[in-house]
Amino acid sequence: MKSSILKSSIPGLVEFPARFNKIPTGEGWVEGRRGVDGAEGLWRVNDGLYDLTNFVETHPGGSEWLTITKGTDITELFESHHLTDKAEKLLPKFYIRDAVKPRAVPLTFDKNGFYKKFKERSMNALKNIDFHRPSLKSNLLADSLAITTLFLCVITATTQSRLALIIAGTSMTLATITGHNYFHMRDNFRMYYWDISLMSSREWRITHAMSHHMYPNTIWDYEILTFEPYFQYLPKIAAPISRKFSWLYSPLVYLLAFYSQGIKRYIHILLVRKKLEFRDVVPFIIPTVMFLATGDLQQIFKQWILIIGVASFVFHVIGLNAAHHHPDIFHDGDNPRNDLDWGLLEMDAVRDREIVDDSYFLTLTQFGLHSLHHLMPTVDHAYLHLCLPALEDTCREFGIGTRRFTPLELIKGQFRQLRRVQVKTNYR
């Protein structure tokens, strides 16, 4: 049963017709935004309409962010992706007129609210850091994992070892997740590490950065929708089969998810986009090198497909248990807090983890320091810890709890959330 039939429990968050799409895609989600945002073919920030056409090619973050979002309300993206006031000062040059329709999203960015206070304190913490660019530390770790993955895949091809195959698939997962650090940033080649898995960095900029990050655990969150009807995370929906049996078939979903995304990706390229980009060739670099090492096409294809399956399974074990799903974490349908500050929604829909957040390696490869990452998605994970005091101070000021969960708590909590149908008042 699709949660698209639900109205949001967040007052003022409109229903989202794109949730009725038979096959959910990033492009479909953007089209859904264009239908409800009242941007009139332009770019909307708060109640103003702006024509950024002449700015697309010179946008410091890359043109893709603007070409994708044309015709939508980019308020949340604008606020969370521009941490200094440079963009805010530049924006009035592109003003056209006020919007006619009210915003479809009720979330606020008041100057005395949680998010603005946190951002101001964080900028002070990062004042001596070039946070617009990734750190050398992250670059070296990401590159090392990508090279290691390629090496292990070649070892698998030449030895036909099952153990090497499992290790190669696990390494592919870790290399892929480092790509997540980079596709949130301005265009760069390391964001393509995400694509070695068959998943698309372009698609995930939409479904993850633009949807999930801005509206986590709500009916606007693509990462909630995409697993329905197999997994139903939102309470108040009966979904008796998935509620009772999802724990049983979840390993199969984990295993097949990369294949599913890859098939959708190339069907979309063939039938809709009708053009290839460099990122669309990236997934085939590894099997090509494996083939060059052995010359056995049939065997290489089989091994590569199995490596993808292992990577998919490990990725979803990590990703679905990383931060968002637990009965004590807000999910749409629960009673939200009265203060609709955007930063507070982010905090209520996320929990941080012990062990993972204490290790830089695990932070980069297992979606660590997740609260800070949601609040500052463009900042390299290597710098996020510098903003912890700012987050703790702001949480104290607003009475927000900061207790971390253990990884085991979140794993068990994720399965408990899949069974939960009772609505509760649910915020930190």
Automatic annotation (TrEMBL):
Q: Which PROSITE patterns match?
A: CYTOCHROME_B5_1, CYTOCHROME_B5_2
Any GO BP annotation: lipid metabolic process
Write out the entry's keywords from A to Z: Heme, Iron, Membrane, Metal-binding, Transmembrane, Transmembrane helix
Q: Which SMART domains match?
A: Cyt-b5
Q: Which residues cross the membrane?
A: 140-157, 163-183, 245-261, 304-323
A Pfam cross-reference name = FA_desaturase
Name the Gene3D superfamilies on file: Cytochrome b5-like heme/steroid binding domain
- Lineage, top-rank taxon, reads Eukaryota
The record's function comment reads:
May play a role in muscle cell metabolism.
* Family statement drawn from the similarity comment of this UniProt entry: Belongs to the cytochrome b5 family.
What name has this protein been given in UniProt?
Answer: Cytochrome b5-related protein
Q: Which gene encodes it?
A: Cyt-b5-r
